[in-house]
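hey so u asked for the seq, here:
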Amino acid sequence: MDFDLFSSSSSMEKPKKLRAALLSSPGLGHLIPVIELGKRLVADHSFEATVFVLPLQASRAEAEIIESAMAPKLLDVVELPPPDLSAAGLGPDASMAMRLVVMMREARPAFRSALAAMEAQPDVLIVDLFGAEYLCIGDELGIPKYVFVPSNAWFLALLLHSPTLDKEVKGEYVDQTEPLKIPGCKPVRPEDVVDPMLDRSDQQYREFVQHAGEIPMGDGILLNVWEDLQAETLAALKNEEFLGRVVNGPIYTVGPLTRPVRPAILGKELLDWLDKQPSESVMFVSFGSGGTMSAEQLAELAWGLELSQQRFIWVLRQPAVKSLDGSFFDVGKGVAGDEALSFLPSGFKTRTRDIGFILPSWASQVEILSHPSVGGFLSHCGWNSTLESIANGVPMIAWPLYAEQRLNATLLSEEIGVAVRPKVLPSKKIVGREEIEKLVRTVMVEEEGHALRARARDLKSSAQKAMARGGSSYESLCKMKEDCQMRIRWIKQAH
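ran it, structure tokens below
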């Protein structure tokens, strides 16, 4: 019996619950999986959990996610004060990734203060990808510390191998003529590298490589996939002859961590419209919490949807002026509305009024994807969106924009087999209306679409089994808890 984890007053008392402190970096792509991880730890593994959140800005989207974590109350959620970035030297054109890195760095004093204010010290620290610099706080507190990577195994492999690539590859990655080799894994095409690797002279590249070196300093890595989704890549990550030698502790597959479905949140008008459509007949078009496109591309997308003659729901935003992640810091604040409609082709809304439904700026995505009428998803391939689509058995049109989305799109179309994609990267060239029409019809009505849908359904079933009691992801979190308890005992004995 583990007496260290029990109260000494009575042998009949319940075991002391482990208390986890989880830190989410800004953005829904981090906030959602961190909160869902916290919920799993509490509901399935008898943890107590406090999630520390660094909000981007007050928005309806963020507020709904935080509220869902607290009703019914499973978690404590602590919102950290937004850091003052005025002295950080960030220019107006600083990338999304660079702004996130700086925000997290500047928020460290606030996080230390918030931890100190907790009624009881946490027993374990879990930080997400942008919080690897916070692992030292786990050492200071004398508690186990883990990194949660809310993405896939191929991305993690590239990330962990990037310090080696930094030394071995000469010149820019995007200029290489051969794919970048990762031990035991599918090579990465130069055009698929993640955004921070696009320019090696940029500060965000140096931050990326530095982060890659910090992640293995935790006591383990939690990854938002399940074993059957990427078995070969996970094997390479665990094999000492390949990437296993880089990772300090175990890799725990804990996914898919996705939001629970709450149909009532959709609103009567949209729900009524969806209920009237035939089964699997609607293409859902959304570019996540931050994705935008040019005015020219937006018009071509509208024409492509119209020409396809397929039903659609489109989450519409104003076109981007400069970057494809242009709305990342404005998510859920209603920045589209009637202004975005002005960029559509003349008469588009009238001509498509019987088959299309336009939503301004933001939508409750998981509820839409779970509706029986939805049969396809034109997506930016953010990992949250990808998992929500797979978890609902919905095939995709992969339309990558920024971050690691190009990598995800290749994974989905070439390895996992649940997506088709344009011939050229949408971030490089305008995708024309004829190609968009063909992609939509391929997924919704053609034979290839039926095969994609069958594969998506198989993965939906596989994901459900992984998350159920006794499944691979459930057991992986059980193992993480056991390892955590063992490490706590070891730390106590060492002191």
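The chain has 18 helices and 13 strands. Confidence is low (pLDDT under 50) at residues 1-11, 331-336.
lmk if thats what u needed
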